Amino acid sequence: MVVPDRMCYKTQMKDSPVYVLGTGLSHDSSVCLLADGEIVLAIEKERLTRRKHDGGNDQIAMEYVLDRAGITLDDVAVVVQNENFGMFRHGNSNYRGQPRLLTDARPVVTISHHLAHAYSAFGPSGFDQAAVLVVDGCGNAYEDCIDIAPGSLVSSIPCGLEHLYYEKDSYYTSENGRLLTVAKDFSPWGAQGWSLSPPTTMHSIGGVYQAMSHYVFGDFSDSGKLMGLAPYGEHGRFDFPLFQLRDGRVLVCRENFSKFTSPARSRTALKSNFLYYADVARYVQSEIERALLYLVRDRFERSPSRNLAYAGGVALNAVANSRLIHEAGFERLFIQPAAGDNGLAIGCAYYGWLQVLKKERVRSSGTTYLGASYPSDRVRQAIAEAGNRISVEQSPDVAARAAQLLADGKVLAWYRGGAEFGPRALGHRSILADPGLRGMKDHINANIKFREDFRPFAPSVIASEANRYFDCAGHDSPYMILVFSVRQEYRDRLANVVHEDGSSRLHTVTSESEPMYFRLLQEFKKLTDVPVLLNTSLNKRGMPIVETPEEALSFFLDCALDAMVLEDFVITKSRPDLGSRERVRGLVELPSASDVPLIGMRVASMALTYRLSHEAWDEMAGSTKELVIGFNDTTGMQKLQLPHPLQTVMRIFELCDGSNTYSHIASQVELNVNALLQTARSLCQRGILDHAAANGNPPRLPGPGLPSARSARPRP
């Protein structure tokens, strides 16, 4: 690891901080700023552009960090960057045709991919001495790696093909605050024409998970869903390996991928053959764990250590992570909270501090709250712009007021301070609820997150009490990246955060890690005797976690959230037309004449369209009107067919405003009430209608969205 001698870095005055700027330009790109060796700001590009997994050019993220720190690039001692392809051989002033803040006149250090991942894990780990592991889909090409050490290659690279072999796993040890390379393995790029060919290297663990994610969900970026689906599956359907494990290497058994011939083309296809895809997910998860444990044990034998710091996209697999704690040989494990490519900027910044500037390592606080806080006047302005759609209370004790709302069964948005960095909401941008209230999991998935009903939710728990409820053996899990079993006696009380296999992806909270969120858990315990809350990120399917107060309020108003804590304000929705009624949590199973329907939270739009014959194109003669509906959780529009004239259907929807019962609506449209209820039942099942509870009577709720026993459905 050599820094070119020709580069000269700015030396700042002793009374001003020494700034280092790190930037990652992969997918999930980000920028991080260190001041005197500590992270002071970091932002993921997707939070600013509002495009999930946004990557590439770093200008907008760099401007955010510099502006909020109140500095310019001239105040930065060194900039360190990473990108997977090209290593900026043609200059730093633009990337993929777009201008950057950097100029070619400015000295910039470019480092390779796994080295950036490694420093992102080691830098904030808190370990004085540690081994560092990186496992992902694809790093830099062999010819671009600056961390090749003598004897570190696990396999040979064919001469002349160095540009075609890419990093797939790397292992380092620390010495005096710097990293030394112990072992690196490379793989050729994925073969074209291979069934389920991953969009990455041929023999990477991460590539297999991406490929199978695409097979089940139709998206390479849905690997986390695969882990969530796996507990619904069973072992035994597949009797062939996905990986060959030998000589310290993990190799993909390419020939066995041709046996997967039924990719899910849609969510409907996934549901109709659910048990098959659940078995696929279970099998893939098991094979990933087998391969990863083999790899980690081999690396431990090459260079043992008490401590392991771990990063790369595969490190987001919380189920496998929990096995590493018990089975890999290390005593302590630190997993970078932003283990994927969003963490590269952190690694670049630490490399600049430790390796380029040769500074002493500063112990990290471990916080993930690295976004900037928004000023109170901007919060007040956002509230003012919401107008009479909301009711606002400035509470003298926000934690106590929020706990009461949660204990009353409300679903609460919790927005305070700077945003978390990484994929998990840890008490600054969260959706919270009672973990045991019946129907809550299905309600949040369907009407707030707009996502698949098998997706689990995580619990936040006071750290000192975690072992009472979870079989975590005293292990802390501050980043929601480890999975533990829920103790049998508490599974009913915590039903909404217990996954199909009895596990939970745990988030432990201390007064030091987040004082106000800790107080909220304490206050909730006073009211319910349970120091646990359902915690999920403040966003919906396909949306980055909200960043600004305006985004938070917009999301709050557009979904079925009941209340919101926005800094020191407690906000509820103004619904004068509903009186004391509340929207149902879940779908009414058998609507009755006295129920009060509303247009469903799942519905994004309704429109009348005209279907024309070819002959009638010019004069609109012979055209047929159709009603089409757009949904929040699917793309495209769906045609609605009901056994009533279109004019009657439109009038029914006009009357579904939260103030009319089915009996009244039937009289207004001159329909038999039983015929209307039959139609309503179909609309309820599709999420087109929600309901309000009339006269204080709670609406009837259906059971869980998926059967807990496999015998409930025939196997395909």
Structure description:
The chain contains 18 helices and 28 strands. It has a 9-stranded mixed sheet, with helices on both faces. A 5-stranded mixed sheet has the order 3-2-1-4-7. Strands 10-9-8-13-14 form a 5-stranded mixed sheet, with helices on both faces. Helix 7 (274-302) runs parallel beside helix 8 and helix 10 (376-386) packs parallel to helix 15. It is globular and about 85 Å long.
- Tell me the fraction of residues in β-strands, as a range: 15-25%
Rounded mean pLDDT score? 88
Largest sheet data: 9 strands, mixed
Class of secondary structure makeup: alpha+beta
| Ends distance | 54 Å
CATH superfamily of the largest domain: ATPase, nucleotide binding domain
Q: What's the CATH architecture of the largest domain?
A: 2-Layer Sandwich
Q: Residue share in helices?
A: 25-40%
Coarse morphology: globular
The spatial strand order of the largest sheet comes to 15-23-22-16-17-21-18-20-19
The overall strand count is: 28
Number of helices: 18
